[in-house]
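Everyone, carefully examine this protein record:
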Amino acid sequence: MKSKLLKWSVLLSLSLLLAACQTKPVRKPVAPVAPPVTIPQPPIFTQSNWEALPEWATLDLTPSWAALLQSCRVLRNKPQWQQICSGAELVDKNDNEAQRKFYEDRLLPFQIFNPDGSETGVITGYYEPLLLGSRTKTERFRYPIYAAPDDMLEIDLGDTYPQLKGQRLRGRLSGKKVVPYYNRAEIDSGTDSLKGREIFWVENAVELFFLQIQGSGRIELPDGRQIKIGYADQNGHPYVSIGKKLIEKGEMKLEDASMQGIKAWGEKNPEKLMPLLELNPSYVFFRELPETLTAPLGAMGIPLTNEYSIAIDPRAIPLGSPVFLATTQPNSTTPLNRLMLAQDTGGAIRGAVRADFFWGFGEKAGAQAGRMKQQGRMWVLFPKGSEPVKF
């Protein structure tokens, strides 16, 4: 009884902090938090047909088949996906027509609309960056990458609010009170609770900032060895776009507000850089990953597939689902129509028609991701006989 009362006391205290403590996995395994009084409106799903999907009849589906099989490692535990995933294993991974027939026989496309009825949304990109770093602090490597702190509390709101199942709060104890966890500015200035939690040190503050936005990356040590790191946790504060802040301040034009543009601005304005970064209170913690991993792990705990995995808002689209994306190439009007798999989440990925396109590892992928801010439409493929609004 005492433990139950304590639990309710903590939940009550944290419910007062919801606005300041929204969880944002920049990249990963927990869904974002929404206060009970501001539950987002559900998306609108309308049954469509295969002919409505641009280029569906001629599209090469084979590159996305491996991503589907990755999703099935998790989806096969859901009754509506069991037979589909079992059947997918029997299809030739190189037979494009067999794969198209498989989708058409077993699934139905539902176009997803925003709650206001509009069909388009923003499609951005992300990637796996490479940073130069060290396991010890030096004059060159002085910006820390932290492991998740021991003093950060995590409360699952689904115990109290069923409609918020899987959504969590972050906080810490201050005396007998539960307060929001430290924000970016407080962490950057140094907190005792994070001392000793440094797993790497890197040489560039803005590169570290964008590593947190990507949610995974690699650290190249002085001896040339590359270590993979991935999302471990997040401090609970909402994500704030620094590109938008630069535009609001008149420091940058909308068309220049890419990752590359922000980095260039930082090089020209070093004295303004840290105050700008700290306008985003969200902070991501990392963990070292096995060297055997071939790609970053997404929110489902499975490796992402370059150019065939997307991050979505799991309040709108079920994780693991095949999603047909109709958009354009980064900073271009050239069509980009592709069958993707919804295998990740992200702090800035909010809304029904909204996705983050995973481009892969390295500078080329980073160039594509940094320039991508396109309009797009989306269709979610659901098993025949299942209801799209019931996840």
Notes: The chain has ten helices and 17 strands. Residues 1-39 have pLDDT under 50 and may be disordered. Residues 44-125+296-383 form a domain with the Barwin-like endoglucanases fold (CATH 2.40.40.10). Residues 2-15 form the longest helix (14 residues).
